[in-house]
Design goal:
The chain is mostly helical. The longest helix has about 80 residues.
């Protein structure tokens, strides 16, 4: 049997060592000391090599079949048909392309989900904006690295380490969901509140000015009506000369009042047009969530709560976004 190596062997060197022995009777613990491995790793590798047909094991006896040498080719040229690619060789490039695409999509989803979550966490811990961003970025990178490592070394990794990493990944996914949910809900509420507040302020301002303008126009109408009533009363009492005198006196005042009334009426019309624009803008804001409102009413009836529907939709997005990134990354790096 060969001398014990002075360094830890990798998997390829360990298999080469076994192949050099051809047949050996040795325990997993002795192999671990020889290779510099823990015993559980030796047992996993032996089991994997046995499943692959690289070794045969019965108890402590391990035998390795020597690779058969290929026969010397016939020097006489023989016409051979063109090689036909097997189905596995034909599908290998396609499988590599699919894995690469899954990896890129996983990174894109992780970037979107991570940015949402980090921004949401900055809203919760608003007193430490930059440190929260640095912490969130590091945690997101650690989560992706852990998923990639688990996908590659799941079979040979110690169970305690695998279990700890899986637990950490689940916790980080939960934190990601909380941060992304906070971000999306905050975006929705900011849009609704700011739009409704701006529209309500404009509507209140226009409504107040419209009331004042209506009173101004009504006051001018009353003054003009009083002058006309005085002239008509004098005429009905048969004082035509007095009526003419009153009309002459009030003619200039009435003309000024009529001109003022026309100006104020135009201002009133302008305010009414502005009020119509404000009402149309409010309807447009309501139309932004129109599809969601109709969907909620279709599912839960005409009395459906729109905000509850928004929360449920946001939760559905959050529960899909980061888990999809993790699963795609796991599928892309899985051996």
């Amino acid at each position: 049997m060969s001398a014990v190596p002075l360094r830890t062997l990798d998997e390829a060197e360990a298999l080469t060592w076994l192949q050099a022995q051809s047949r050996v009777k040795i325990s997993a613990a002795e192999l671990g000391r020889t290779w510099g491995w823990p015993e559980h790793r030796v047992r996993r590798r032996l089991k994997a090599w046995k499943s692959d047909g690289a070794i045969r094991q019965r108890g402590k006896i391990i035998s390795v079949a020597k690779p058969t040498q290929e026969p010397t080719p016939n020097p006489t040229p023989v016409s051979t048909p063109s090689p036909v690619l097997s189905s596995s060789s034909r599908t290998a490039p396609a499988s590599a392309a699919v894995s690469r695409a899954a990896f890129l999509v996983a990174l894109a989803l992780a970037a979107v989900s991570g940015s949402f979550a980090i921004y949401g966490l900055t809203s919760i811990f608003s007193g430490a904006f930059l440190p929260v961003i640095a912490m969130g970025t590091a945690l997101e990178a650690g989560k992706l690295a852990a998923v990639s490592w688990l996908g590659r070394y799941w079979k040979m990794a110690p169970r305690a380490l695998s279990g700890a990493l899986v637990t950490m990944v689940m916790i980080l996914m939960a934190l990601n969901a909380i941060g992304a949910y906070g971000f999306l809900i905050r975006v929705h509420l900011n849009h609704v509140v700011e739009s409704e507040a701006a529209t309500s302020d404009r509507a209140a301002d226009v409504g107040a000015r419209l009331d004042v303008q209506q009173h101004v126009v009504q006051g001018l109408d009353r003054q003009i009506a009083q002058i006309d009533a005085a002239i008509e009363g004098a005429t009905q009492r048969g004082r035509s000369t007095g009526a003419m005198h009153i009309a002459e006196q009030q003619r200039r005042a009435r003309a000024d009042l009529v001109a003022s009334r026309q100006r104020e009426a135009r201002a009133l019309i302008d305010l009414q047009v502005e009020k119509s624009k404000v009402d149309a803008e409010y309807k447009r804001i309501s139309a932004d969530v129109g599809p969601l409102r109709y969907l909620a009413q279709l599912v839960a009836g005409p009395d459906a709560d729109l905000e509850n529907a928004v929360r449920l939709l946001t939760m559905a997005v959050v529960l899909v976004l980061d888990p999809m990134a993790v699963l795609l990354l796991l599928a892309a790096v899985r051996r």
